[in-house]
Design brief:
Layout: H1 20-25, H2 37-40, H3 46-49, E1 51-54, E2 58-62, E3 72-76, H4 88-109, E4 113-117, E5 134-139, H5 146-149, H6 160-170
Antiparallel strand pairs: 1-2, 2-3, 3-5, 4-5
């Protein structure tokens, strides 16, 4: 098969997603801390902002556009773009809150695993590149099927407000302080 007879030009089938060009070009993305959602969320109620927990230097918030149910982000209050610009206290709390997030999501939903990480810069895929945030995405065996892959649809078993409440209720009042391992 060739491009001339309507078939693919290689052994790989292609799915075209031209609507992604707006995302790639940055249309509608915040351009500074005045319109940064991660700067605006802490001023909201926990329910309105989907905040699960507030720490000293970071907060845990549900992703408004989750990859999976229980997809949390750990975000510094300070508007900072790069991981290397975090203070020692911010790095320590970011790690401790990420650990707590994983424990709580595992307890509440029985997650089998997690994708944890951050995209540094727009070219690395950061949707909001100017304000660092770390994702904790719960995973289950078989959670990727034809719906997200071909149907471009995510199946979430619960509305975000209910997920936020379950996680907030299970969140310990004071996550373990970072320190040397015993």
């Amino acid at each position: 098969m060739t491009a001339g007879d309507g078939g693919p030009t290689s052994v790989f089938e292609q799915l075209w997603t031209p609507y992604r060009m707006a995302y790639i070009k940055g249309e509608g993305k915040p351009t500074g801390d005045h319109d940064c959602p991660f700067c605006l969320i802490p001023a909201m109620t926990d329910e309105d902002g989907l905040i699960v927990s507030r720490g000293e230097t970071v907060f845990a918030v549900l992703n408004l556009f989750p990859y999976n149910a229980g997809h949390l982000m750990v975000v510094p209050y300070r508007h900072v773009a790069d991981y290397t610009d975090l203070t020692t206290a911010e790095v320590a709390e970011l790690g401790a809150v990420t650990q707590t997030a994983m424990r709580v999501v595992r307890e509440v939903s029985g997650a089998h695993g997690f994708n944890v990480g951050m995209n540094q810069g727009a070219v690395a895929g950061a949707g909001i590149a100017d304000h660092l945030h770390q994702h904790a995405v719960p995973r289950w065996g078989g959670d990727t099927n034809f719906m997200p892959v071909l149907g471009l649809t995510r199946v979430l078993p619960q509305v975000l407000a209910e997920t936020r409440q379950l996680l907030a209720d299970a969140w310990p009042d004071h996550p373990p302080a970072p320190g040397p391992a015993a």
